[in-house]
Each structure stands twice: as C-alpha cells, then as structure tokens.
Amino acid sequence: MTRVSADVPAGPAPEEPAAGGAGAPRSSPLRKLVRVAFLVVALGFGTWAVASQWDEVRAGFALLSWPALLLSLVAVVAALGGGMMTWRALLADLGSPLPLRPAAKVFFVGQLGKYIPGSVWPVLAQMEMGRALGVPRTRSAAAFFLTMPVQLGSGLLVSAVTLLAALPGSAAPYAWVFLLVPVLAVAFEPRVVNAVIGFGLRRLGRLPLERPLTRRGMLTALGWAVLGWSAYGLHLAAVLYELGPSGPSVAVFSIGAFALSWCLGIMTFVVPAGAGVREVAMVAVLAPVLDRGSAITAALCSRIVIVLGDLVCAGAAGLAARRRAVPGRGGSGPGEAAGEAAGEGGAAPGDGGAGPERGRPGGEAV
Fold this sequence. Notes:
membrane, cell membrane, Lysylphosphatidylglycerol synthase domain-containing protein
C-alpha cells in the first residue's frame, strides 16, 4: 500500500497542464483532422463572401488604383495586428503570456472561424490551439470574450470623438449608440470584470482564474485597440480618397466611420463576421461625404480587403510558427513555444505577463 504523506495539501488539480514542452498535450491525428476541417470550412465561407458579390466587387475595384488598394491592405494588416495585441495583452494579464509568433497563429487562424455561421467557432478554435501551448481553456475563453467589449467600447469612444471632430453633424443620428460608452466604461473596471468572470465560472462549475485582470492590463489592451481603430481608419481613407473626398479631415472621419459601422455590425452575433450589417451601416455613415453608389463601393471594397487581410495574417502567422518549429532552426514545437515568452518579451508592452509568478499552476507560460 502506498503511503500518502500528511504534508501534501489536498486540493483540486489544475484544469490544464502547465505550459511547457513536457506538460503540453500532443496533437492526435483526430485533432489534426478537426483543425484541417475547420480551416477548409472557414476558407470556404470566406471565399463565398467574395464570390457572392463578385460583380459588385469587380466594378468597385475598377474605380480604385492598385497603390490605393495595396495601402488599404497594409493598413488592414496593421489593424488586425492591433486586434491580436489587444487579445494577447488580456491573455498575458490573466496569466498566460505567449511569444509573438505562437500568439499570432492562435489568434489569426482562430479568427477565420468568424466566417462560419454562428459565433462560437473563433473561441473554440483559440481554446483548442491555446491548449496546445499550455493555456487553460477557461483563460482562453476569458481573453476572447474580454476582447469583444474592449474593442466595442474603444470603438464607440473613438467613433464619437473622431466623427465630432471631423464632421459634427454626422454623429447625431447615432447618439443612442454612444449611450453605451459610460456603461462599458464601468464594465472595464477590473473589479467588475473579475467579479463577472468569477460568477460565470462558478455557475459552470469551473475553477476560478488563478490571476485576476489588472487595471494595467486593461489599459494596455485598450491602447492596442485604439491603435487598431486608427489603422482601420487609414484603410478606409485610402478607399475614400479614390472616390472623391479629400483633405486631412477625411482620414479622421474614416476612423470614426469604420469604428461605428464595425460596432453596429458586431452587435449581430448570428451573422458571420457581421456580414451585410456592417456594410449597410457603413453606407449610412458615409452618406455625408459620398453618394449612395460610391458609399456602396467603399463598403464592398472594405469588406473584401479585410477578408484578404484575414487570409494574409493567418497564412503568414501559420508559416512563421511552422518555421519556428522546424528542427535544426533553433525553434521549438508547439508545446515548447510557450516556454519562450521571456525570450521574446512576453506579451504586449506593459502587460506584466512574464514575471515571478510563472511557476504557478494552471497553464502559466514558463
């Protein structure tokens, strides 16, 4: 009979294995098959989003120059990077700092799930891929669901400020939406967020998060989100300059117009990636500076450039992570990637992710 020492305290086991090479779960053939199927389905819906409106898209692109489209795509890639850093900062603040390349792969590949009808696919994909890096599922889910209100609140605030600065009358029809700003500001208080997360985990019968969200982590995430909205505005401005409006105020207006239309679109969770809703909202928001035909062209071009940006980011992140994992190049496999957080600077600047608490159970990156 094995004797159990009385000095070992009894308690619940960690929800997931700790991050690192030995503890991280290995991919089974079934898991790989599921990931491939997920990518095929997501890419199929993304292709359908382009093909279903191809005639309109081709007509719209014919009005734009290739330099403008390239600039718009570069700005979209930068904006998507801001979204990834927002999520990464929250994940690090919750206790799982990830190095840049593995974090980019988890985020960008997972985000392809937004093109599949239903709102659960991105979070399920991120939970599964994060688990291979030793990130507990509950922590992945918490970071995902926190990213949405952070982007929504920052987007509404940015749109209110920029629309009022560029064209005051353009914000008046949407004053009711901006009433959510003070509500979300209260919700951003870490004590409120931690209480809500704790309540939800208790209701689900799960262990509480080992590390609560901090004000520093929330402010870091908000900073990245604001940078992301600025890049999205430049993406739309590159299109608008080709369709007629000019002047520095167009760039400021574009930031608010895109942020507001995105916020309206994200409120419709059952529509893949806000498809259709964001375009209708963008046409309405652009009405003060463009005629209806040009506004439709701008909205469709914006949609297609963003789809291309999603594909570019997912492909680049996947290749970068795979190159890192190739033996003989000084890289590591998926299970070891989380162990390099300190070497690549952890998460976003100022998130305080990699610190003396690395050794705590529950999936900390070490």
